[in-house]
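Practice problem: predict the structure.
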Amino acid sequence: MSTQHSSNSSSKSTAYANSQRAGARSNSSATSPSGEKRSSQQAIFISGATFASTSAHSSTSKQELTTSAETIVPAKHDSESSDVSEE
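Answer:
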């Protein structure tokens, strides 16, 4: 006998910057109707950075379960950003 679960997904993103550093944290999780679970997390904190951006996404359906977390924190005096994502 197969147990039927309800599907659930959630995501949370937090970014901050102060005079010493900037950072961001993203978390997402999803559970499919069959009980399969998936999660993604990403966190970056850089001393001297002045900007941070973050996003998280999760979704679930009978056929697909997806999560992603991304943070962007450019280093001080650097025109390139540190872009790290995890799926």
